[in-house]
Amino acid sequence: MIGGTFFFVAFLKLSCYTSIQMYRGEHLSMSQKQNKPTELHRMVDVSTAQLNHSKEQSLLYLRQKLIDTANSFVNDIFQQEPLDSNPTKKELQNILLEKQKDVEGLNKGYAEKARIQAQNVVHEAHRRYFRRLIGRLAHASERIKEKDASRLYYYVPQHIENIITEKQLKELEAFVKQGSTQKALDLFRAVVLEKESHPLDALQVQVIQEMHRQVLQKHQRPQFAKGDDFCLQIHLDYRFVTKHHERIHEMNERAVLIFDEENKQFKTFLSLSNPIPRGKRIQLPICIRERTIKRLDRQGRLKSIVLELSENGVKVKLVFAKQKTNPKPVETCQFAIGRDFGYTNTCTLSVAKIEQTLDEEEVTRLCNLDKEEAKQYLSTHVQEDDNIVERKQFNGKRFLALMNEHSEHIRKLSSQIDGIYNKVERLKGWLVGTLRLAKDAWISKESRFLEENVQRNHQKFFLLLELVEKLKRKRRWLYKKMLGVRKSWFGFVANEEVSLAKKYKAIVIREKLTLKPIEKESIEYKGKAFNKMLSNGARGTYENISGQKLEFWGIGEYGVGAWYTSSTCIKHGLVDKQMRKSQESFVCPLCAKEKNADMNAADVLANYFGLKAIDL
Ligand SMILES: [Zn+2]
Question: How far, in Å, is the centroid of ligand 1 from the Cα of 572?
């Protein structure tokens, strides 16, 4: 493509285009997949000390050089048309192993990291390309559902949509449904590459071509470090050196953890090989105590070290791995934590002392009660003693305010972006009309026009497009920031939950996540971004975060039906929605005392397995 040209029709679809963010977390999830499922991982942040100028420059160089190398590797193996030659991962690797030898100015170990990343993302891009082709073929007859759409089908060219029949489209779909995916891909190959139409008719061929055109348009060369907030993650093998410095010079690629007892300021250093071959190692002072590592090492094994390089600085993370252990049998548990996940209060935890010995079979039965059975159970079983030994409530006020602030900002940006797109659309109409261009004509940014007003509007058109890109970058950045805020708050709360569970050797009982609609009155509408991140996925996200931590520490987690937990008084065996006076307040007429509704729910959950039948 010639630089500066712009596709007139395609630009309006830019909003669907998402930049590819690699490295971020991807490597870890890949290595998790490759590992035996019995190994659990956990990442721990480690703080680094202020770096001096030369170390900082070396690391910035490493970041840039590694990104450039990875991008050049991507260029070497990326296929514009994967249908043509579909190289296996092994083949991609072989090509790059040759290229890797020619890399200059980058230590071998780092060049290898770049190679592995490049072959993985390219392989994944090719696979995505094939998945998209097959996906479209499988849904050939799918119609566009929006009322005011100008077209009928997603994948059928507009000029034949009234001629082609449902039957013809279903025949295309059958290629995926009956045969293997290979059969479907062979069809694309035959039609697109070999111009072979058999066994399709002319209209079907056009559909295949349209699908291919759409997918090819989306099939873009992956690019490292696209976003401005791009953070490069390098996973390093490591080894310990307790008494420092011996033999380190022999090591080239590995990171070495050094404990230096004689150093007054720092005891721990991460010693990295220099990005430049045969350069002096870089010693990063980091703040972890040897004790911490030893403690974690007893419970989990230090597996690797992750170096995160962004434009703003350096972060170091330790990855711990641990064999998966089954949670202790429920019979041995004397405490249970009830977790209520909510809106105003992100999380409310109650720890209940359980008097009787729990029974696995009974616990399983209680987890699977249906709505009627749950009501029956809760109104005939009680906990008369006050057996709650500790409670913790995490108020989400500040978190919500922060999220709201960002989301308000996103909302404003979005309306700005929409406004600019409208202007762009009008300008486009005007230019196409004035210049008598075809609808899908190419126009160059560098074009010059004699008429002054054409020249002016042409310029304005491209300026607005640039502006819209800038605003969209900002919106992406804010969106990521929101995700970060949520992740760190949920992570903090989940850590508190885990330490509470460890303290009492307790199990955790929570409501089962059902797909019930969100209560409208409890959630104020605050715009799409806010809702998306808080109502729909929030509880699921929290459960994933805490679930992983609980699993890592071998803490049993149980889900019970989400019925009546917020409208039950366990002391009196009363089940009545009326007792929940408001979002905040719960009042049982027999207790006659107001309770925080979330705390009551957490109490009910904590006691769920330990209730005793009422003697009648
Ligand atoms: Zn009561």
Answer: 5
CA of 143 to the centre of ligand 1 (A): 56
pLDDT tens across 578-601, in order?
A: 888 888 899 998 888 889 999 999
The alpha carbon of 601 and the centre of ligand 1 are apart by a number of angstroms equal to 13
CA of 586 to the centre of ligand 1 (A): 10
What is the CA(112)–ligand 1 centre distance, in A? 66
Residue 189 has pLDDT above 60, yes or no: yes
- Distance from Cα 515 to the centre of ligand 1, integer Å: 30
Fold of 330-396+490-613: Nucleotidyltransferase; domain 5 (3.30.420)
Q: Residue 134 CA to chain centroid, in angstroms?
A: 25
**pLDDT tens profile 219-271:** 999 888 776 667 888 888 776 665 555 554 554 456 777 777 777 777 778 88
User: What distance separates the 2 farthest-apart alpha carbons in the chain?
Assistant: 97
Of 483, 487, 489, whose CA–CA distance to 475 is shortest? 483
Specify the 3-state DSSP secondary structure of 593.
strand
pTM of the predicted model as reported, rounded to 2 decimal places: 0.66
DSSP code, position 128: H
Question: Tens digits of per-residue pLDDT, 401-438?
Answer: 898 899 889 989 999 999 999 999 899 888 888 888 87
Compute the distance from residue 592 Cα to the ligand 1 centre, in Å.
7
For residue 240, count other CB atoms closer than 10 A to its CB.
Answer: 12
Is residue 13 over pLDDT 60? no
One-character DSSP codes across 385-420: S--EEEEEEEE-HHHHHHHHHHHHHHHHHHHHHHHH
The answer to whether the beta carbons of residues 304 and 270 sit under 8 Å apart is no
